[in-house]
């Protein structure tokens, strides 16, 4: 479930970041909406968002919206909250791409959307992998939050098990499971960062 | 052209006419406006006043889409600015494939031909970090040439290179000049300018102080500022 949330967050956050970075009068309404979204969902604590979605949406008593599994509400709450944070991380990445790269891309006659897609975003995303990893480790831990809605998570499952067996080793197992997920990802990320740094240092005068 | 950044007037009324296949070398001290002039010609910077005409068409007119114009003007920068996340071949084919909508296979074929012409065919699959500065700059020039531009702008393309790598880049420029490419070259390489230029323009404080064929400008400079500049260059052993 956490993987599905991660994928949706990346897509939504990227969309928000590109919209916020856009210039030009046509996209102004979208820019305002994106800014509002980010302000609200960074300002409100994640747990409150999860509560609001998980208890509030069923309370509306609408057909499709109110009858989902608690896990779905959990994912939705986390996605809404994390997308705002990750959007700002992507924006930092976009701003960190040297202006000279943009000049080179536009000088070839690429439009701004083309330059964004083929030159800026690939470099921006590579740059922000470390802080993104931070956020996704945090997301993994926040899946425990979802237990307040009654969804079975590793945390909750450990609680249930330990209440029958009366030992805390189940919490250790839960912790180990989290580590088994995050450590390989961290090593792989280190490898990507090292490779990308090598390439970037050769491209410009810095 | 006039160009100001806020209060700071960088170009104070530049009037320059370049005929097809002419090579104009822009010389002058740092801050004289050479880079700004080039960036205004390919519409990277908007002009404060004035206009730029290419092939009889005013490219600074508001109705003109600058992206379309930039496809006809190639520019090469002092710091190469190759795309580090792409191979050499991809760097060269990106423009033709995405901007000119050339079919992928054809763009690759053309790119490999250009690489072979300049002795870099075996580097097509490498990333820029594996190339020397001179090789990267030559790839940057090929990237600009792949768009089949009518005009090439070279902004101090050898200034960031180790001296022994400068020659290979100058050879490329010389070959382009002989093949008839129209070029505006900002450079500190005076001997090269003397060799290759149809005309040399000396810039100071945002104006073209003097403009003449190289033999005239270097032997008999008419303006005192030109004389002073050339004296400083000669004293530094660069001429």
Features:
heterodimer, A: 206 residues, mainly alpha, MetI-like fold, 9 helices, flat, B: 239 residues, alpha/beta, Rossmann fold, six-stranded mixed β-sheet, two-stranded antiparallel ribbon, 10 strands, 39% helix, globular
Short description:
By secondary structure, chain A is mainly α. Chain A has 9 helices and no strands.
Description:
Chain A is an all-alpha fold and 206 residues long. Chain A has helices spanning 2-21, 28-43, 46-59, 70-96, 99-107, 112-127, 129-142, 154-165, 169-203. Chain A has a single domain (2-203), classed as MetI-like fold. In chain A, 79% of the residues lie in helices and 0% in strands. In chain A, helix 1 packs across helix 2. By secondary structure, chain B is α/β, with parallel strands linked by helices. Chain B has a domain at 2-83 and 151-235: 3-Layer(aba) Sandwich (Rossmann fold), CATH 3.40.50.300. Chain B is globular and about 55 Å long. Chain A binds chain B through residues 100-101, 103-111, 114, 118-119, 122-123, 126, 196, 198-205, and chain B through 39, 42, 44, 67-75, 77-85, 94-95, 98-100, 127-131, 136, 143-144, 147, 160.
